[in-house]
Amino acid sequence: MHRSSVVRGLYRIFYRSLQKMIALSILVFIVTGCANQTFTFNRSAGVNDLGPVTQHYWFWGIQQSREVDAAEACHGAHKIASIRLQTSLSQFVLSVVTLGIYSPREVIIRCLP
Fold it and tell me: Helix, strand, or coil here: 104?
């Protein structure tokens, strides 16, 4: 067996493994691209949605552009029904492209009347 055929064989194995890793990475990005967290405080009917308000996170979440005060938005902490943080697929892709330096998220606050 010649040395060049061994190198070509190793190259083919590496290339196929690399293709599988890239395909798996793309699949993981697509499946986990949209995320949301909801914090429910009161499940009463007749709530009012405030938002969505886009928050801009910089440097892997260390710095955010502004803080959203739910108690102030609902005119009192006792009127907060729920707070939802969500990331759309396009926001996730933007975060991946910038390597996490910029990560936008949306905040939706639901208030009791």
Answer: strand
The alpha carbon dihedral of 50, 55, 61, 66 has a sign of: negative
Which pLDDT tens digit goes with each residue over 43-57? 776 677 777 888 888
Supply the pTM of this predicted model: 0.60
Handedness of CA 8, 14, 15, 20 (dihedral sign): positive
Alpha helical stretches, state H, the chain: 3-31, 70-73, 89-97
Task: Enumerate helices (H) and strands (E) in the chain, giving the number of each.
Answer: 3, 5
Other C-beta atoms closer than 10 Å to the C-beta of 87 total: 19
> How far apart are alpha carbons 113 and 75 in whole angstroms?
10
**Residue 48 CA, distance from chain mean position:** 25
For 83-97, how does the pLDDT look when each residue is reduced to its tens digit (9 = 90+)?
888 888 788 888 888
Instruction: Give dist(CA 94, CA 79) in Å, integer.
Output: 34
Residues pairing with 86 in the sheet: 36, 106
